[in-house]
Structure formats: C-alpha cells, structure tokens
Amino acid sequence: MAPISTPAPALALLSASPFNRGIVAAARQRGLQIIAIDRNATLELDHDHHVRVDVLDYPEIIRQLAALTQCRIIGAYTSADIAVRATNEINRHFCGRAVPEALLDAILSKETMTAAWRRDGLLNRFSQAFAGFSPEILPLVAQFDVIIKPDDSSSSRGITILDRGASSADVEAAVAQAKAASTDGRVLVEEFVQGRELTVEMLGDDAGHVAVYGISLKTHTENTIRNKIAVRLHYNPPELDDAEQARIAEFARACFRSFGLRNSMGHLEVLRKPDGTLSPVEINSRSAGFVACPLVDEVSGRSYVADYLAMLGGAPVADTLFGSDRSAMYFFYDLPAGSASQHAVNLTEFLPDGIVSLYHNRTRLAPGNRYALLTCDNDRYGFEILAGPRALMTSAAIAAAEVTFLGRLLGPARGGVSPA
Questions:
Q1: 385 in helix, strand or coil?
Q2: Which residues pair with 75 in a beta bridge?
Q3: pTM score, two decimals?
C-alpha cells in the first residue's frame, strides 16, 4: 500500500504582487507552500500553486483551495484593500478565525472608522461624509484648511488638500475627483491639520489583545499638486524615543479595538498635532508587503507573519509593544518634476556603512528617464527597503545621502554641481 501523504501547510496569498516578496521569504523560511491567488496568467512571484481567480470572488477561491487536497491552508494574507473580504472569508473557512462578519461590509469605510473614533473620544478633528457636492461643505472650507478624499479608496487616489477659503469651483472639483475614486460613491471632508503623520502596525486576537510591531514616521513628497503621497516610512527612528512610542502604541491599540477589529493585522495612520495630541486618520485590516516583512520584523525582533499565522491557529497575542535596537525605512525615490536622470547610480552608494538595502526597485533610475509630478502612490519612481542600527540610521543621515545621490543622478542639468 502506498504511504498516505500528509498535506503540506500552505499560505494563501491574495495578489501575486512583487511587493509581496518579503512575505514569500518569511513563509519559505517556515517550510510553507505558497498558493498565489491572482487573475493574471503570468506571475512574477515565487509560488507553488496558482489559483487563477479574481480576488473579489471568494466563494470560487474557497472552492478551488479546498480542491488542493495536497495542501493544508493555515492562513491567508493580502496587501490589497480590495482583497480584505476574501482574505477574511478564507481565514474563517479554513482557520475558524476572522474579522467579525458584521464589520466586513464597512471595513474600508473611513466614515465608519471616524464614527467609531468620534464615539470613543479618539478623533480630535472635524470629519464629515457626503454623498457628493453639497453647499453645506462651503462653510466648513471657510473655517478650516480641508482634505477631501474618497470614503473607501487607497493609494492616495482622489485626494485634494484645499486652503481655508478655497473657491466653490475648487471645492466642487475636489469633491468630484474624490467621488470618482470612491467605490461607495461617498466623500469625506476633514479638517486638515498640520502635523506629523505616523503609521502603526498591529496584530489583534479574538480576545481583544493587541500587539504593536512597528511605528513609523511618515514623510511626504513636495513633488505633487495638493495631495499627500508618502516617500519615507521610517520605523523605530531615533527621533521617536521609547516613551513616545509607548504612548503612540497605547493610542493605536485603542483605535484598533474601537473600530472592532479582531483576528487581524491592523495598519493605522495617525496624526500627531504640534501640541502632541494624537488623532487617527484611517485603519486597514491588513499590512503591506515589504512593511509586514521585512520592515517591521527588523524593528520588532519578531516575525510578524509567523505571529499572524499562529494567531489564526489559536495562539494568544500579547498586549505589548515589541522593540529592538534596529531601525528600518521604506525609502521611495523622490525626484524633482521636470528633471531627468543622467547617470546610473542609486542611494545605497552614499549611505553610511552598516545601513543596507534588503529589497529594491531601481528600474526607473536608468539614464534618460524623465520625472513628472506624482498624482498617487502608484506613480512613485522606485524604492529601497533599508535597515540598520537605530543609532546610525537617523533621518539626517538618510537625507544627506539623498542629497548626494540626487546631485549625481541628475547632474548639472538639475542646476547644481554633479559630485565626482
């Protein structure tokens, strides 16, 4: 009699984006098979099985996963907002743990998030949803600088920042742009507060315990028009001391619980006002590929993906902030509009010894490339995933390396002196 084979443990990965290479690496280190769920015929990501189904079609995904009898699904992961529903339905079916079903219908709605945070005294700024342009918006714009954005879009699409007193025409145009990018047709008008944006990566279990794996300081490009597009996410930066990170972590856990998340990763964007007050911007029931691995692994001293899968298997989550003496950064190349690359060069050539790049995309740095203003996250010109000792990896050190890099990449045509 032939021996009975034991099904191999497998991770269901919704969307085979190359940005999920870190997730695949973490799964491979633990002997997991990769089931890529992606409608495209050809995939650029390492995988063992390909379920060629749209990530929205979770009944068909579950049917095809169940037919892979050689695999035992121990969890699903996605970096894509549109696949959050399917990820949770897979986790519910195969692991018995997922975000509460009642929350899934509104899990991408910023209106729902802000309503929960307002109820629990966490919001600290004006925020109101509209079905489209309304004269009621104009008095708000007369009082505040505002940010107008889609209720449930991502990748910084459809966002406009308007100064206080902006014209009715500008307001109508901003609302129309946000509405076009919003899948539920609703628009959020919020007080735009000058402050520093941070991100927090979390994991919560079914009992309400929430662990924090990494906190980043966000930097936004100036090479855009009235939008906020991040070009740096600096995790465990020296500029945020341990006490401040502990305060932010406590606030983030409150936001996670307030929204009602359970059995889930959580990516929170939060604003720190000049007086130190914290106000949540939005939360997602997921993380992002290179953020989940290796960025937060570097700064937490843990495997975020392994802990997530363990939670789906029934392991409890600790109410804690994990930390280390490491720092990490998602560095996006931020190039002046109208410039063009002159030389084959990248940032790592100018970094202090000890700071390394774990992953990168430099294809658009090749000589002859031209650069325009960014309109959304997807326009960015490439990246480095940086890691190094916290004491060494300061914002100033990265900024100095970037200045030298830009001078060399763009050369005299940029209007400066090209370093030798």
A1: strand
A2: 11
A3: 0.87
